[in-house]
């Protein structure tokens, strides 16, 4: 499935999320299965399938990681996270050290340290998204694939930050 085609938008990384939300609402309303309640079973099934496709396309395009994966897939890159981009040893070592710092802050219930690490990684994730936008504008390359790998690491790190913040708030 091409999520961009499903939504009727150009396949770009740089997406206006407010416009995307309006498109999703309009399409969801148009293909909603309740609009086909008085039709036959096959038409209702088809309407449900279209609604599911629109919702899945919207989930893909609104998420930067999934959007990048979709664009790379459309460009012929076969992405599997386990055999994904090879990241440099310096980056991997730095992420390991940051994860250890996050774990230490969590064990110490140091909310300020957890939040500071989260802010730092959020800034790096935003920078990676900007780099992806530039990379896709120039045409996908191995550097784009690598940047996606970095963004995946940042996302997982931020998930851990959120979990720790939730634990400490309880």
How would you characterize the overall build of this protein?
With 170 residues, the protein is mainly α. It folds into 2 domains: 3-62, Orthogonal Bundle (Helix Hairpins), CATH 1.10.287.110; 81-169, HscB, C-terminal domain (Monooxygenase), CATH 1.20.1280.20. 75% of the residues lie in helices and 0% in strands. The chain is built from 7 helices and no strands. It has helices spanning 3-7, 17-31, 41-62, 64-74, 89-107, 111-138, 142-169. Helix 3 (41-62) packs across helix 4, helix 5 (89-107) packs parallel to helix 7 (142-169) and helix 6 (111-138) runs antiparallel to helix 7. The termini are far apart. The model has no long low-confidence stretch (mean pLDDT 91).
């Amino acid at each position: 499935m091409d999520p961009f085609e499903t939504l009727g938008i150009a396949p770009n990384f740089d997406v206006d999320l407010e416009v995307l939300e309006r498109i999703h609402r309009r399409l969801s309303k148009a293909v909603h299965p309740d609009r086909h309640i008085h039709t036959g079973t096959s038409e209702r099934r088809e309407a449900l399938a279209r609604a599911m496709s629109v919702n899945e396309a919207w989930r893909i395009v609104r998420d930067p990681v999934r959007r990048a994966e979709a664009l790379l897939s459309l460009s012929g890159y076969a992405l599997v996270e386990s055999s994904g981009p090879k990241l440099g040893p310096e980056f991997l070592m730095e992420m390991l050290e940051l994860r250890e710092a996050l774990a230490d802050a969590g064990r110490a219930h140091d909310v300020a340290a957890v939040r500071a690490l989260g802010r730092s990684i959020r800034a790096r994730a935003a920078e990676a998204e900007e780099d992806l936008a530039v990379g896709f504008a120039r045409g996908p390359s191995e550097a784009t694939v690598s940047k996606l790998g970095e963004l995946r690491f940042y996302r997982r790190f931020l998930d851990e930050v959120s979990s720790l913040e939730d634990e400490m708030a309880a």
